[in-house]
Amino acid sequence: MLIVADENIPLLDSFFGDIGDIRQVPGRTMSATDVQDADILLVRSVTRVNQELLANSRVRFVGTCTIGTDHIDQQWLESAGISFAAAPGCNANSVAEYVLSVISLRAEKLCEDDWTRLSVGIVGAGNVGGELAHKLERLGFDVVICDPPRAEQSEEEDAKNFASLDEALKCDVVTLHTPLVQEGDHPTYHLLDASRLAALTADQLLINTSRGEVIDSAALVERLAEANPPTVVLDVWEHEPRINPELVEQAWIATPHVAGYSLEGKVQGSEMIYQALSQYLGLPARKKSGQFLPEPALSKLSFTSAASEMDAARVAIRSCCDPRRDDARLRHSLGMSSDERGQAFDRLRRQYPVRREFSSLKIQLKGTSKSAQDTFRALGFKIKL
């Protein structure tokens, strides 16, 4: 059995090596010739999986080790009798931690000692948005959640927990976590168009870690050049990997689609597709991601009663996730030609440094308050008193 896989999927041999022979190819340039003789195809979000890619192949199972599926023509796969599996929620915690790090940076920039005074509007309450909302609520933030499809499907009482998009866009922080939907009752393509971007002010922070096309990037470039523009953090972009360098320069923080790139998130994606493929083949799924995670480079931090709660939290958060490092790497590529920038964007993702999640770090608290202990627990760190 031949498995053709994106070379950037972690632990391919560990999870799939005893299922079949593995041929690793670059996901961005994967072609019909690459997959023609494959039985199994494993991809990430940079590969368009459709009739053009698979029509003349013998592929019978496609797995994407990602939460998004807009790169997959699921309707055609079904019509062709090809089984499909995704990894919903695999990197939800990773993206939530990225957003928390950005919010901590925003609070610090505003000289705000209590970051929970910032209201947060979450647009899209699926795996990622839901995980972020849960963390923020445990931390004591005022959270406004907008998700029209879920609001429609909820019981009348539960539907009251959802707000309109306009309400969410009034928050101090607006963070986008929607899938890319082109059609239907609730399309998200250019959800934030010129009129909605015009309503955002300099007092607000806009974060996009969902899909680049959820924001009209041309309109955003214009808005950021006008008076009183919002502060913008972008991890996803229209036309990846050939992103707009002008928009990079205008953004406060710009990163190369890596918010979900914690080691735990990537490995969990591989594990979920391994489980789905094992089920498809009728094989026992005995492997777990915990078997393969290495010891983290930083395993423990210690704080005494002299440390303020927020300062300690900032140190711990940024020890694991500091988007400013990724921002610096992306900006370094801006002086290149368009094609070179595209290659650099993919290279930054392919060669992304190991980032571990908060749960990999043990926090020792000596004589600190119960409030500090609760904060670290809510963030997801391991606590030692």
Describe it.
- This protein has three domains: 2-86 and 263-291, 3-Layer(aba) Sandwich (Rossmann fold), CATH 3.40.50.720; 92-254, Rossmann fold (3-Layer(aba) Sandwich), CATH 3.40.50.720; 300-333 and 352-384, Erythronate-4-phosphate dehydrogenase, dimerisation domain (Ribosomal Protein S8, Chain: A, domain 1, 2-Layer Sandwich), CATH 3.30.1370.
- It has helices spanning 12-16, 32-35, 51-54, 74-79, 92-109, 127-139, 148-153, 156-159, 165-168, 194-198, 217-224, 245-250, 263-281, 309-320, 323-332, 338-350, 370-379, and strands at residues 2-6, 21-25, 40-43, 61-64, 83-85, 120-123, 143-146, 173-176, 205-208, 231-234, 253-254, 300-304, 362-366, 382-384.
- Strand 4, helix 4 (74-79) and strand 5 form a beta-alpha-beta unit.
- The protein is an alpha/beta fold and 385 residues long.
- The chain has 17 helices and 14 strands.
- The protein has a six-stranded parallel β-sheet with strand order 7-6-8-9-10-11.
- Helices cover 38% and strands 15% of the residues.
- The model has no long low-confidence stretch (mean pLDDT 95).
- It catalyses: 4-phospho-D-erythronate + NAD(+) = (R)-3-hydroxy-2-oxo-4-phosphooxybutanoate + NADH + H(+).
- Residues 112-259 form the D-isomer specific 2-hydroxyacid dehydrogenase NAD-binding domain.
